[in-house]
Amino acid sequence: MLNWFLELFDFMPEEGSTWAAEVDWVNNLISAISVICIVGITAVMLYFAWKYRRKSDDQQATSYVTHNATIETVWTVIPTIICIFMFVFGYKLYHEMRNPPAGAMEVNVQGFKWGWNFQYPNGKKSSGELVVPVGEPVKLIMTSSDVIHSFFVPAMRVKEDVYNGNYSYLWFTPIRIGESRIFCTEYCGTGHSEMIGKLKVVSRSEYNDYINDKADLPPAEIGQKLFEANCQTCHTLDGTPKIGPSMQALFSSGKKHEMEGGEEVEVDENYVRESILNSKAKIVKGYQPLMPAFEGQFDDKQIESLIAYLKTL
């Protein structure tokens, strides 16, 4: 009965990811509660306005009431309970959406005025069209080459802002083969409305054919060459500390570095990017601030390649 009632408020596009049904349920629940509340409050307001209207010019004015503790308690407690109820469902889903599973396929995304570029694990690049295999989790690691954009795929129920000089991410597991629209939902200039891409979900065999067609050198291989040329003098790969900390298992799940001063920092793409470009921003405990900053020496693609290589260790 409840689900039938909630479906009355379902105006979302076809579900394309594993959690789309959960997103729709929470969205419909909040919509239904909001409609019920506004209809109920408006009905009571109109009834009181009619019931206590002034019926004649000589009618005595109603005595002024300053407050009613019972009513004030009721209209505070009940909305609070409703808000907590909605928060619990929303946070549970939000937590799932912010924690991609280990082993998710990673694709680098670059937003620009006015389009999207994609780079796959083996180095293949595409523009305007993202191709992913059905039934497999996909993590998009995103940045912008200019202004703030926002990557939105309604069918997958995912949206995340995309920034210049920083990485953001989202993930989803597509459940059906087909095509969906990709939008930018952050006004980014005169071509904002034309910043539309395509998400194409295909079978694993079709994806393999696509990904292996004219692939460039994989980012991890480019990153390995950059590491060997610039980093291995100070950083080892076998866990042995040197001038700087070892890169072994740098991106292992939940890994953190303790900084001078006691702060703990989780190792992710943004931390590594900052450590490369501004090496003295955060100093790992037990090491000296000797690493030179590479600001202006590495471009975004080189940094992404270095990160891709470090993830293989």
Whole-number count of domains: 3
Termini separation comes to: 52 Å
Low-pLDDT residue spans: none
Largest sheet: 5 strands, mixed
Form type: elongated
Number of helical runs? Answer: 7
CATH topology of the largest domain: Immunoglobulin-like
Number of strands: 12
Average pLDDT across residues? 85
State the strand order across the main sheet. Answer: 3-2-1-5-8
Order of helices and strands: HHHEEEEEEEEEEHHEEHH
List the helices and strands and how they pair.
Elements: H1 2-7, H2 20-51, H3 69-97, E1 105-112, E2 115-119, E3 125-127, E4 129-133, E5 138-144, E6 149-153, E7 158-162, E8 168-172, E9 178-184, E10 197-202, H4 204-211, H5 219-230, E11 256-258, E12 264-266, H6 269-277, H7 300-310
Helix pairs in contact: 2-3, 5-7
What does this structure look like?
The protein has a five-stranded mixed β-sheet with strand order 3-2-1-5-8, with no helix packed on it. A five-stranded mixed β-sheet has the order 4-10-9-6-7. Strand 11 (256-258) and strand 12 form a beta hairpin. It contains seven helices and twelve strands. The chain has helices at 2-7, 20-51, 69-97, 204-211, 219-230, 269-277, 300-310, and strands at 105-112, 115-119, 125-127, 129-133, 138-144, 149-153, 158-162, 168-172, 178-184, 197-202, 256-258, 264-266. The mean pLDDT is 85. It folds into three domains: 2-52 and 65-97; 105-211, Cupredoxins -  blue copper proteins (Immunoglobulin-like), CATH 2.60.40; 219-310, Cytochrome Bc1 Complex, Chain D, domain 2. It has 313 residues and is α+β, with helices and mostly antiparallel strands. The two termini are 52 Å apart. Helices cover 34% and strands 20% of the residues.
